[in-house]
Write the structure tokens for this entry.
Amino acid sequence: MAAKKRKSANEKQQDQIILYKNKVEVQLKADTVWLSLNQIAKLFGRDKSVVFRHLNNIFN
């Protein structure tokens, strides 16, 4: 009997759609959605210092 292949974390995330029920006005420019730090914090229900730390880790 063949072993069942387990999905990686990335594969699991690709199978999901996450909806957020927050009212955040965003800016659309050239098919790109732009949010400020405060808007991202509101969208995810986190303090803006947490969002800043994560963005800083991504871009630095």
Observations:
- The two ends are 47 Å apart (CA to CA).
- DSSP finds three helices and two strands in the chain.
- The longest strand covers residues 27-29.
